[in-house]
Amino acid sequence: MTKRVLVTGGAGYIGSHAAHALVDRGDEVVIIDRLSTGFDWLVPAAADLVVADIGDTERVASLLQDGGFDAIMHFAGSIVVPESVADPLSYYENNTVKSRGLIECAVRAGVPHFVFSSTAAVYGSVGSEPVAEDTPLRPESPYGSSKLMTEIMLADAARAHDLTYGVLRYFNVAGADPAGRTGQSTKGATHLIKVAVEAAVGKREGIEIFGEDYQTADGTCVRDYIHVTDLVAAHLLALDRLRDGGDSLTANLGYGHGFSVKEVLQTVDDVAGPIRKTMGPRRPGDAASIVADASKARRELNWQPQHDDLTGIVEDALRWERHLQTRNEATTN
Ligand SMILES: NC(=O)c1ccc[n+]([C@@H]2O[C@H](COP(=O)([O-])OP(=O)(O)OC[C@H]3O[C@@H](n4cnc5c(N)ncnc54)[C@H](O)[C@@H]3O)[C@@H](O)[C@H]2O)c1
Ligand SMILES: O=c1ccn([C@@H]2O[C@H](COP(=O)(O)OP(=O)(O)O[C@H]3O[C@H](CO)[C@@H](O)[C@H](O)[C@H]3O)[C@@H](O)[C@H]2O)c(=O)[nH]1
Fold it and tell me: Which residues are in the NAD-dependent epimerase/dehydratase domain (predicted)?
């Protein structure tokens, strides 16, 4: 069978990195993206881009029916936790209902493999110990619940039909393609490292630290930041496993150690020069600490991360931010 992958959300931050990685190793790639938070200029030249909503099941069905795909990588979705609290039904619509339709189209068209972007948000508050995949799932936001429901649908569909899947639960994804071809370009981004490097290049006046009264070493929240290149490498390994006839798998993707908000911002200061920081209240819904036990991905996928270095992550994010600034100046002049 041809190695041909439908990448949903392939014009977004993580999906565009995956599309590049797939093209780099010779897979054929078709992207479906409605360009709500993604950009057509992030897509590799060798990939076909279909600008459409994955909720347009007629379009998706006809793409899959005639397309000769052996896999779907499903990145499309809505991703901002506080937004999901304010507007839960739109999250269930975009992340759960539309994923259901996509899975159904895959089953009907006989696409045998499905790799899905899930999230550490399916665990909820877990304490300071690294969290393994068999930890009880108690999402605390509609975003986390919307993703968990898709995990459940995939597992049930795989039991009933000829489908194998990889569910990958991402911790905090950051950094950019070291080759400089793509990076996080979201407008009004809320992710810590993205916001900090925007401040470093002068796009923002500074950054607010959301709470310093957590039960952590320095009082700020602890997260497990993973370089997007390592994250994407695990997707390719998961896909290869399925293509080789391996079992479905659910695995965390993180490095297994955490950094506090203050440690991250210190690293940004070290790399880019000091940025302005102000102390603010806690952001609703933030857990004090969440760190992956990522031993399963290493064991089952033979995943060997190459970019487990916070300084390198920040350097790559900063390089991309500078590139965006130059690009914006070029397009506005
Ligand atoms: N960034 C993170 O730290 C993180 C962490 C955990 C999980 N994830 C998951 O990874 C995936 C990708 O996230 P990202 O950071 O690249 O976000 P992103 O917003 O950059 O990418 C999402 C892409 O999906 C597209 N899209 C959204 N809804 C669509 C629809 N209905 N039809 C077609 N296209 C649609 C957007 O235009 C965008 O290009 C998401 O599913 C997200 O939940 C991200
Ligand atoms: O301007 C900012 C932005 C963030 N933070 C803090 O930085 C930490 C990380 O925040 P953020 O980068 O927004 O990531 P999370 O809230 O941890 O959520 C991310 O990581 C989850 C998995 O752990 C994914 O599911 C989500 O999609 C993704 O947004 C949190 O303590 C925030 O309070 C600040 O203090 N100031």
Answer: 5-254
